[in-house]
Design brief:
This protein is an alpha+beta fold. It has a single domain (7-123), classed as Alpha-Beta Complex (Aspartate Aminotransferase, domain 1). The chain contains 4 helices and 5 strands. Strands 1-2-3-4-5 form a 5-stranded antiparallel β-sheet. A hairpin with a 2-residue loop joins strand 2 (61-66) and strand 3. The longest helix has 18 residues, at 12-29. The chain is globular and about 35 Å long.
């Protein structure tokens, strides 16, 4: 009797990663116009800052995980005055006894992009 393999199970990690990316892109596409472009830029910026992060949704928000643990996320809804970029306790942003884990974004300029790139790199650092 020939042993069969379960292709779905064999390819699940890749399928989950692709599905997570699709869900995140769908969430961004559903954002109101003023936040959609910023969401697309944030997504690309986060992915470029740390290619090891995998996209997924987390409580309905676009999020990025390392080894299955969410490191950062963002949200932007029509009812909100600004987008929010947040980091979970898995992010390695500790500085003394007090540090920021959430940021309001009204506009995304080169200055903010540089800051976000630095934060994401620090959040996933191995030290």
């Amino acid at each position: 009797m020939k042993k069969t393999t379960n292709n779905r199970q064999k390819h699940a990690p890749h399928a989950d990663k692709a599905n997570g990316e699709s869900l995140v892109l769908a969430k961004i596409a559903a954002m109101p116009g003023k936040y959609r472009a910023m969401g697309e830029r944030l997504h690309n910026l986060i992915k470029a800052s740390s290619p090891t992060l995998s996209a997924r949704t987390w409580y309905g928000m676009p999020a990025y995980a390392k080894d299955g643990k969410v490191i950062c996320f963002f949200r932007g809804d029509a009812s909100e005055r600004y987008m929010t970029l947040g980091f979970t306790e898995g992010a390695k942003l500790d500085e003394g006894n007090l540090w920021s884990t959430s940021f309001a974004l009204k506009e995304l300029t080169v200055t903010e992009e540089m800051m976000i790139t630095s934060l994401v790199k620090k959040a996933v650092s191995e030290d």
